[in-house]
Amino acid sequence: MRLPAEWFTQVDDRILEYLQEHKSGSPTQMAKHENIHFTRSYVHKRCKILADYGLIEDYGNGVYIITDEGEAYLAGELNLNELEPDDEN
To answer: Which domains can be identified in the chain, with CATH numbers?
Structure first.
């Protein structure tokens, strides 16, 4: 069972699932996917938040990849309430 946190939204699950399936992706690509019903700008905003929490990584040029932590969350092995955002951004 996945253990989301209060800051986590429905699109965050879809973003992580997309990156798990496709290995990488940009907010533009994700926003065009049939399971993600949000604008590119909103997906981009959520990607930045997911990256701050270490669930995805900005690979450069607007491309994101899922991290081990993101994979652990999808597998139900990580409680997101235990994560703290990266204060460097």
So the answer is: 10-78 (1.10.10.10)
